[in-house]
Specification:
The chain is built from eight helices and seven strands. With 235 residues, it is of the alpha/beta class. It has a single domain (36-232), classed as Rossmann fold (3-Layer(aba) Sandwich), CATH 3.40.50. Helix 2 crosses helix 3 and helix 6 (170-180) runs antiparallel to helix 7.
């Protein structure tokens, strides 16, 4: 069951996904990201990069597959309290997710976070980003699609990409069973499928190392997360 990545689709992958289910799914992900370490993975990464940059201008961060933008908003609030300057451009192709994100953004009134309803391959930024992050996003794609996404990111991300996703393991699946017990059936379905579509450290590292001219670090993060960093080597 956990030896190879599952290929079963999640309900959220369907463009016709019910809005009520989508809203429930993103509420669940917001909770999981906040309490099970997903937000912390991104926060630690960008805190490190902001310290390295010193007192220069704001770091421009592209967040891919942002969903309802819970992680960029949480990290932006954290950074502002500490005098760090981060500016997020969030890409999300789903109209349902973008509607939820725009409601969040209106309530937060955070000028450093913007969301675009846009596919990564259609994105044409006016200037390069310093870093890119992607949380709970890459497990939705097949291996070859992941390589294509990273190659695309390389064209407008100057330094490094953080992939913050799920580690495929039986305890993670059992934990998801417990956390979704009694909740909406669709949320439970997608949570369990997500775990089985996640990654093992060795296989994900081997996949990313197929990309030339970059250094790759893949490690376990708390609560069955996986944290992969891809630093591009520039001529």
């Amino acid at each position: 069951m956990f030896e190879v990545r599952a290929s079963e689709a999640e309900f959220l992958d369907d463009p016709g996904c019910d809005q009520e289910l989508a809203a429930a799914s993103y509420r669940f992900m917001t909770m999981i990201n906040a309490w099970a370490g997903g937000t912390a993975v991104v926060r630690r990464f960008l805190a490190e990069k902001a310290r390295e940059a010193g007192c220069g201008g704001a770091l421009r961060v592209l967040d891919v597959g942002s969903g309802s933008c819970d992680i960029p908003l949480a990290v932006s609030r954290w950074a502002r309290r500490r005098g760090l300057r981060l500016r997020f451009t969030c890409l999300e192709p789903s109209a349902r997710a973008v509607a939820l994100a725009r409601t969040r953004l209106a309530l937060a009134d955070d000028p450093d976070v913007q969301v675009l309803q846009e596919n990564l391959f259609a994105h044409r930024p006016a200037e390069a980003y310093d870093y890119a992050t992607a949380s709970m996003c890459f497990h939705h794609f097949k291996d070859e699609e992941i390589l294509e996404i990273v190659r695309r990111l390389r064209t407008f991300v100057r330094k490094e990409v953080l992939i913050n996703d799920l580690r495929r393991a039986a305890p993670a699946w059992l934990g998801a069973c417990l956390l979704t017990a009694g909740g909406p059936a669709g949320v439970r379905h997608d949570a369990l499928v997500s775990i089985r579509r996640g990654f093992k450290i060795s296989e994900f590292k081997a996949l990313l190392q197929r990309i030339p001219d970059c250094t790759v670090s893949v490690r376990a993060a708390w609560c069955f997360r996986i944290s992969a960093r891809i630093a591009f080597v520039r001529a």
